Amino acid sequence: MHALQLVEWKAPPQLRDVPEPVPGPGEVVIRIAGAGACHSDLHLMHDFEPGMLPWDPPFTLGHESSGWVETLGIGVRGIEVGQPVLVYGPWGCGSCHRCREGMENYCENQSAIGAAGGGLGRDGGMAPKMLVPNPRHLVPLHDLDPVDAAPLTDAGLTPYHAIKRSLPLLGPGSTAAVIGVGGLGSMGVQLLETLTPARVVAVDTRERALELATEVGAHRTLLASDDVDAMVADFTKSTNGRLADVVLDFVGVDDSLALGARVVRQLGHLTIVGIGGGTLPVSFFSLPYEAAVATTYWGSVTELMEVVELAEAGRIAPHVTRYSLESAVDAYAAMRSGDLEGRAVIVPN
Ligand code: NAD
Ligand code: ZN
Ligand code: ZN
User: Fold this and answer.
1) Peptide bond between residue 281 and the one before it cis (omega within 30 degrees of 0)
2) How far is CA 163 from the centre of its chain?
3) Confidence tier at 29 by pLDDT (50, 70, 90)
4) Nearest ligand, CA of residue 157?
5) What residues does ligand 1 touch, defined as CB less than 6 Å away?
6) For residue 52, what are the contacts with CB-CB under 8 A and spacing of at least 6?
7) SS in 3 state form for the chain?
8) Nearest CA to ligand 1 atom 29
9) Model confidence pTM above 0.90
10) Cα–Cα distance between 81 and 94 in angstroms, integer?
11) pLDDT band at 239, cuts 50/70/90?
């Protein structure tokens, strides 16, 4: 079968012929419906130096996958062939304290395991079939179209986890800032809208991204510029003078972090989700009192189940553009050049 593989660091991916996966005992093969193209894949292709991560190419890309159960390995029970599923992406050891809580994104043995999951060190979903090493990574779908649902596993789950930890700050009269309204940010806006009464201010460098932000529920939008003072003034004009209780930075470059530090309130949360490689100086005077800065990585499998519930209820929906496996590189090119709105999903079958 054809698979879109990262063959070496800092190189474009290649469409290669690879053997079809066969499930060993306890494993499951799924037929892929869709595999979302995440900006993290662009970081893998362009930014990460060899040795930065505990795993290496080659592997098939696609860490945001959905499909139908195709073949069950010996001993797999509780799941039927043909069942539509999402693949929970971060694969931990399955037995440490965090994994037992469903938080395989924070597995305590990750450095010993190496690969972070399918599409991140192991073969992912940008191929007609994908091997999933354990059925605990599968979350059943019911009414959702599996192609449109694929982005829930990362573009949905990652903002959901980031927002959930800050929910106590997002009561009536509160403000949330979403910086970067692409695949993740457009889901972040919807999740804030459905989960909280917060006023949502969306920030992006692209007008089209801001139009999508408004479509999916942002109350105010702000075009990012080099003039941070002017942006802060614009921000507070749109919030009756109130700074942000929670800032979600889905970019993570110097400029977005600097803006986040300026618009976050005292006692607020500045949450860095984007892997843009920027830095933020931290000192007594660089942030408002008691503002807390944290990074977040992906989410737990039970949170993914909650995201699926929201999507099945029609309260959130990824904004999807479909691409064939043969044109997957075009999806990444569109993401890189700013010509994509929402999420690109590769449909290999
Ligand atoms: P994307 O390309 O779909 O969206 C990024 C958006 O940010 C685009 O709309 C772009 O115009 C905008 N942008 C770029 N520079 C900006 C700036 N200076 N100010 C404001 N907006 C700006 O990317 P995505 O797939 O949504 O991923 C977003 C980031 O999150 C990436 O860095 C990705 O690697 C990272 N990510 C992190 C996790 C995690 O668990 N922490 C998970 C998935 C993705
Ligand atoms: Zn991702
Ligand atoms: Zn573990």
Assistant:
1) no
2) 13
3) very high
4) 1
5) 38-40, 43, 154, 158, 179-185, 203-206, 209, 224, 250-253, 255-256, 273-276, 296-298, 335, 338
6) none
7) CEEEEECCCCCCCEEEECCCCCCCCCCEEEEEEEEEECHHHHHHHHCCCCCCCCCCCCEECCCCEEEEEEEECCCCCCCCCCCEEEECCECCCCCCHHHHCCCHHHCCCHHHHCCCEECEEECCCCCCEEEECCHHHEEECCCCCHHHHHHHHCCCHHHHHHHHCCHHHCCCCCEEEEECCCHHHHHHHHHHHHHCCCEEEEEECCHHHHHHHHHCCCCEEEECCCCHHHHHHHHHHCCCCCCEEEEEECCCCHHHHHHHHHHEEEEEEEEECCCCCCCCCCCCCCCCCCCEEEECCCCCHHHHHHHHHHHHCCCCCCCEEEEECCCHHHHHHHHHHCCCCCEEEEECC
8) 274
9) yes
10) 23
11) confident
Ligand 1 nearest atom to the CA of residue 39, by list position: 25
Which of 103, 251, 340, 346 is the best mutation target for the ligand 1 pocket, counting ligand atoms within 8 Å of the beta carbon and taking the most? 251
**pLDDT score, position 112:** 87
9 Cα–ligand 1 center, Å: 20
Mean pLDDT for the stretch of residues 211-223: 97
Residue nearest to atom 27 of ligand 1 (CA): 39
Please give the Cα distance from 164 to 127 (Å, whole number): 33
Which among 184, 166, 131 has a CA at the least distance from the CA of 298?
A: 184
Ligand index nearest the alpha carbon of residue 104: 3
The predicted-structure confidence for 176-212, as pLDDT tens digits, reads as follows 999 999 999 999 999 999 999 999 999 999 999 999 9
- Euclidean distance between CA atoms 118 and 89, whole angstroms: 7
Residues 184, 298 contacting (CB under 8 angstroms): no
The number of the ligand nearest the C-alpha atom of 158 reads 1
Closest CA to 150 of 71, 63, 45: 63
Ligand 1 atom, smallest distance to 340 CA: 3
Per-residue model confidence as pLDDT tens digits over 32-76: 999 999 999 999 999 988 888 889 999 999 999 999 999 999 999
